[in-house]
């Protein structure tokens, strides 16, 4: 049996495949869900970001949802979420701040070093140049210390030591990475679909 999660403008739809048809239920009504992430250690544990209502978590595959991170994540516009192979959860916001939780979303800390990267002075979202946001978070599949993060727009940044230090965008890397993916059969490689460099 398969499930499909569809983030719509004002709700999250969960479509359940049955023997002869599909069943659809609506969740997070009136909100704007925009990113989903599943815990690889627990397929029933799902995280969903919203544009204005913060971050939500489900522990039953999407049947029920609870808001999390209100005390520690200092923006209601949560724009990216990911979970690494060890169950560490990462969340990005608008404006661009990056957080992590080592206790399945109960408490959060911030990777503050990214605020001092040289490229930050050029981070801006073209339709609203007064702001910018974390677009994509991609933990490594093979190395839990490695992670790539894209900022909309302005940078692809990365860490190779679990967030202790961060490397700013390489000179020839995309500034406008829309999607950043890893593949389990291509260790050490990231795939970027971007607005300024195409697909690499």
Automatic annotation (TrEMBL):
Compositionally biased region (Basic and acidic residues): 160-178
Domain of life of the organism encoding this protein: Bacteria
Ranges where the record places region Disordered: 160-200
Protein name in the entry: Sortilin N-terminal domain-containing protein
